[in-house]
Predict the structure.
Amino acid sequence: MKKNTAKKGTIARLLKMMFGFYPVLLPLTLLCIVFSATVSSIPAIFMQNIIAIIEQSWQSGDWNAVGGEIIKFVLILVVFYVLSLIAGFAWNQMMAIITQGTLKKMREKMFCRMQTLPIKYFDTHNHGDIMSHYTNDINTLRQMISQSLPQLMISGITVMTIFSIMIYYCGWLTMVVVAGVIIMTLIIKKVGGGSAKFFFRQQTALGEVEGFVEEIMNGQKVVKVFCHEEDSKADFDRLNDKLFYESEKANKYANTLGPVLNNIGNVLYVIVAICGGALLISGVDNLSLSGYPIGISIVVPFLNMTKQFTGNINQVSHQVNAIVMGLAGTQRIFDLLDQEPETDNGYVTLVNAKEENGIISECSERTGLWAWKHPHTAEGNITYTKLCGDVRLAEVDFEYVEGKRILNDVSLYAKPGQKVAFVGATGAGKTTITNLLNRFYDIADGKIRYDGININKIRKSDLRRSMGIVLQDTNLFTGTVMDNIRYGKLDATDEECIAAAKLAGADDFITRLPEGYDTELTENGANLSQGQRQLLSIARAAVADPPVMILDEATSSIDTRTEAIVQRGMDALMKGRTVFVIAHRLSTVKNSDVIIVLDHGTIIERGNHEELLAQKGQYYQLYTGAFELE
């Protein structure tokens, strides 16, 4: 079971990545932080020297040189403070650049990795939770880099510097402080460790809440139609209560830590003052590296150092919470970056080709002819196979989840230019076959050949470029109507896009839009009807002009009148192409060359419309019993 904590090495990995991003600027920033933190610790030294001068003058009765010595020390301290001010300003400015630059590069890395992930990842992960990586997790990372880590470093350096000064001046009082610090450290470990667990759970719960909210927003019409408002509220309350519980626990630990440490620091200050007074009265020899006797010049600066020492440890404790949250968010980001990308061992590529005297060769210009470029390692030569659209499945088995077979011994073929239709109940395996053709998933057993080539040998990007697909669920992107059509072929001209729209039957409604083809679409084309969105999706596939077309219930969202218009365009679109059609309306598959009837992942009938009716099997029952399959 996955632990709800950040993995060891997360901070080291983050720092290594940041050094890679800013190999010069980051070390320079750290130097400025070190200088600024060190300067904040040296007033104790100046105070000791000034008190020692006053103490000596008091004992000798000679006050002539006191003013000059004090002024000298003050001027030196002023110079250090000015330099510290400059260093502080510099590291804050540089840290702003490093923080925003790191976040920018992390977002780029996440998005680039996301583009390489297989479809399975998006099928098995909540989309809202994935979005949470770009919002909440990035925000916690920002707070950690820009605020918590620098402050932690400053406090840590200050503590070490003051501790060194303490040891130098008085070992006895240092022991007293160390005893108090041990108690503070044990409390930080106990309370901070408890908060770490709950802060990580908080980030996970927050992702679940955002995922649920996105899901309900997308399905708001369905919620209202089925009157599930109260049930949705109950589900949201359950997730929100979980987030509340984890956040409450995390912040209880976090809010307890500060006051406890602050009071321990105050108590320690009093104990050091008592012990220092006792040492002064008893006249005990000083245990120190400085060789100074215990006196007012040692005890007074030591009290200030104790206050500063415990204050910085307290400051460290305050940063623990933000760092824990930041590490939790960073770990979730790394979890996304560590996802295994989609594997592609294909080496057969799709190239522009020309044919002369029956011989196919590669060329740089677009000729309208495509070929598979197949390098043969053993023979050391390259062969070219014309892209025709011949697709064959032989004894294919497949399962999404191990042990749950979806396709069982499926064999079929589609010759170039043939129209093959799949019919069957939901879950029969129709869409699964088209997913396998695109290699969104890989088969468990059997063979799929494309123009005689095993598709495992074809590079996935080239395989998918040779196929057009129109999904049942339309997806339009922010941009103009023309941009969305051109998505199918980025170098298509306006004329080609308009021709594709006319072919799909979309030109009529597009020209009636306020800005025609320049009309801006947002939110998945919310200003269009479902049928209009589907027509644009069909036009997008048409402009790509692929030899193989997959239509996953492409006309399901179009009314009967519009369907007749679209069907004429679809017939023209399918002419000369190998077409796979997934249909619920049997009227759309009547003119198919082959109709394949699937049931629980097995082909139970195949033939054309007339042959299947003559068999009087399941297809006959579907066709005569109910015109709509589902």
About this structure: The chain has three domains: 10-213+247-337, 349-386, 393-625. The two ends are 41 Å apart (CA to CA).
